[in-house]
Specification:
The chain is α+β, with helices and mostly antiparallel strands. The protein contains two helices and ten strands, in the order H-E-E-E-E-E-E-E-H-E-E-E. It has one domain. It is 33% helix and 21% strand. It is elongated and about 95 Å long. 25% of the residues are buried.
């Protein structure tokens, strides 16, 4: 008698199911690492903006005003024009605090700059809700800020002379 060589249908199905499980786990791990990477970029961006704001404060004796739409008002010849994200922060001809203000890694979210008493708040929206810096609640001035279409910011960075909500870090 000849024996047939090959795999049975059940053996093939078990292998396909195992491969499917492994692929699914890999996709979730990849998506999670991308979220964490974008969140790390957001934190670095806000720290760089914070350093530029500190240099502005050293030169002008105060932090720049905030515009009503969450932008910095510290550009142009008189340092009073609105600085859009992706533009130079400072006076293009003599003083540059930041060559290019960064933007959020996603195209739908944005960073937000707000004035505080003798300081500022810089807001972003984190994707990884398990991040230790994630701001779940706090006073309204910390949590009632939109970083995207109907999405509240959940991370705030403040100037060193401004009280930060619990669970956030200072520059």
């Amino acid at each position: 008698m000849k024996q047939k060589k090959g795999f049975t249908l059940i053996e093939l199905m078990v292998v396909i199911v195992i491969i499917g499980i492994l692929v699914t786990m890999g996709i979730f791990a990849f998506q999670s690492s991308q979220k964490k990477s974008r969140d790390a970029r957001r934190k670095v961006d806000l720290n760089q903006i914070s350093r530029a704001l500190e240099m502005y404060n050293n030169d002008h004796g105060a932090y720049p005003d905030a515009t009503g739409d969450g932008l910095i008002s510290g550009c142009g010849a008189s340092f009073t024009e609105k600085c859009d994200w992706t533009t130079t922060f400072g006076n293009d001809s003599t003083v540059t605090y930041m060559v290019k203000l960064p933007t959020d890694p996603t195209s739908t979210w944005t960073y937000v700059y707000k004035e505080a008493t003798k300081g500022y708040y810089l807001y972003a929206r984190l994707e990884n809700l398990e991040d230790s810096s994630f701001l779940e609640s706090g006073p309204i001035e910390y949590t009632d800020v939109l970083c995207g279409p109907e999405l509240n910011c959940n991370f705030v960075l403040t100037s060193s002379n401004t009280i930060a909500p619990e669970g956030t870090s200072l520059p």
